[in-house]
Amino acid sequence: MKEMLVKYYGATLAEKIKNKLLFEVEPKKEYARWFAQKYPEYRLKYSGKHNGITLINDSGASSMDATYFSLQQLGRSVVWIVWNDDANIPVEELDWGVLQKVKKIIVIGKAFLKMQYFLENDLPVEEAGNLQDALRSAVQCAGKDDYVLFSPAGKKRTKFEDTGKLFKHVEELMKSLIK
Which residue, of 34, 37, 132, 147, is most buried by count of CB atoms within 10 Å of its CB? Predict the structure, then answer.
């Protein structure tokens, strides 16, 4: 598996990433600010705090830059849920300093293999079949004062509004699980 990924992504890039020589990408702050104003319910929306766990809906984060921006804003331990069907997700664009806030990554979609390969020695990366399972796993992993961040880091087949509505629905289910 690793040999296939190194061949596909390039040994040099894979070595840089594995050695934590990740390059920092400047997030598009102006666009992120505009988007947050236009669609406030989908960017870093505080969705409630239950048993000390804070749920954050960032379903409008349709790129790695947007998710990077979101991770920068959070100050403590994060369980990050990614819903991304891009097998080429640019995980190498994340700065290691930002990733150090992440306690665990739960991935729905084809991005799982690449994220697992690049981060497996540094962060737990788990695959989930759907958003409900991902949220359940995130809440089980999260401790008091942790964040559960739903930030897809890419476009899914459905519009982000649909993903946001789904998150809100599953969010209500999660409230019953973490009481």
Answer: 147
